[in-house]
Amino acid sequence: MSANGTNKTEMVKDAIYQACLNLDEQKWDEWLGQCDENFEYSITAHSPEIGKDMKYLGLNALELKEYFELLPKHNTDHSPLRRHATVYSVSVDEKAKTAEAVTSFLITQEMFDGVNAPLDTGENHLFVVGKYLDKLKIENGHAVFTERETRIHTRRLDKGSHWVF
Questions:
Q1: Which distant-in-sequence residues (6+ apart) come within 8 Å of 149 by Cβ?
Q2: Which end of the chain is more exposed for a tag (fewer CB within 10 A), N or C?
């Protein structure tokens, strides 16, 4: 890999980690700002019981924007989610100016204990485990998400959890 490819690899990793920070802080517009206008997002899991993949959510960039605008109207668990991510691999296609990345993640949930929430917080627990399967384009010195499949290994999700993972 050329030095230029190494820089692009780091650019992709930086984009992934920044996306985690934006999602942790519920900065939905900033996260969408990291995405192409034709961005596609999905949450999927494999069900061994039925021997098939399941799709929990599938939205494009415009639908995600509308989804985020509706979040305050949902009866949602407001306990914060925190992503702990490790980029496993980045493959850069120099000619096409694209990249693909695989990132393992754990998401913890900070449980509000209800006394003086949100100032008084209780315990943390493991919320979901999975991998981000990202596709990005590289342009103007930035890595921009074109597709993210959030492939979760946790299939029992709590009620009121409407957040993007």
A1: 42, 43, 44, 132, 133, 134
A2: N
Beta bridge partners of residue 106, listed in sequence order: 84, 129
Question: What string of pLDDT tens digits covers the 165 residues of the chain?
Answer: 445 556 999 999 999 999 999 999 999 999 999 999 999 999 999 999 999 999 999 999 999 999 988 877 766 677 788 999 999 999 999 999 999 999 999 999 887 655 555 555 568 888 899 999 999 999 989 999 999 999 999 877 765 566 778
The candidate with the shortest Cα–Cα distance to 36, out of 111, 120, 139, is 139
Give me Rg for the CA atoms of the chain.
17
- Tell if the pTM clears 0.85, that is, is over it: yes
- Count CB-CB contacts under 10 A for residue 105: 20
**Could you identify the residue written with the tokens 């997002």?**
41
Strands (DSSP E) contained in the chain are 35-47, 52-60, 81-93, 98-112, 121-139, 142-152
Q: Which fold has domain 3-152?
A: Nuclear Transport Factor 2; Chain: A, (3.10.450)
